[in-house]
Design brief:
alpha/beta, 3-stranded antiparallel beta sheet, single chain, Rossmann fold, 7-stranded mixed beta sheet
């Protein structure tokens, strides 16, 4: 079964442009005195660079050594900095309670079984300050080309593609009701479809 380390080794950075809504969200973050940002599942670093350029105190956590190597090299090339940690997102985060002002996770947390996703969300709650923000994006099942991907169901609404660029990687597809239930510790300020055909949520910890 391939993983993101294999993908980054074969394909390099894969993603290079930051999410299109971060410029708008940065204004909200600045208005609320945000300083410390975690990119959960930072991959090769596109959002680390974005936030570092904006002057935030930036942290990145990812389970791929290759992804972090590419991220560090990219940061060095741009003379930027971020604190990087190699770890899976379904393990206890190496941060204190109420540590971050913002946690972003772009197209990441759905890559797991539901029990592990729930653990990740609890850790997000733990390390995020009260009134801290989350910005998370996840895919729609309807957006997948089923002829291209060939999805094998492994639990309710969780599938593993049998072909395509993410072959072998679990994908959980949230219903809107399930999303609200899983993120019940947050006031969900915005829920919408972004330009990459993913569902995006902006929330604030209650």
């Amino acid at each position: 079964m391939p993983d993101w380390d294999d993908i980054f080794t074969k394909r390099g950075k894969v993603f290079t442009n930051p999410h299109q809504d971060l410029e708008r969200l940065t204004k909200i973050f600045n208005e609320n005195g945000v300083q410390r940002v975690l990119d959960l599942g930072c991959g090769t670093g596109r959002h680390l660079l974005f936030f570092s350029k904006k002057g935030f105190d930036v942290y990145g956590l990812d389970g791929s050594p290759k992804g972090l190597e590419l991220a560090k090299n990219w940061l060095d090339e741009e003379k930027l900095s971020a604190k990087l940690t190699h770890q899976r997102i379904d393990q206890k985060f190496p941060y204190e309670n109420d540590f971050f002002d913002v946690i972003i996770s772009i197209q990441v947390i759905h890559h797991n079984l539901m029990k592990d996703i729930l653990f990740t969300v609890k850790e997000i709650e733990r390390v995020l300050k009260p009134k801290g923000f989350i910005f998370i994006t996840i895919p729609f099942l309807q957006a997948f080309n089923l002829k291209k991907w060939v999805l094998k169901k492994v639990e309710e609404r969780t599938y593993i593609p049998q072909s395509g660029p993410e072959e072998g990687l679990p994908h959980h597809f949230f219903t809107l009701a399930e999303l609200k239930r899983v993120f019940s510790a947050f006031e969900l300020l915005e829920i919408y479809k972004d330009k990459t055909n993913h569902r995006a949520i902006l929330g604030k910890k209650k």
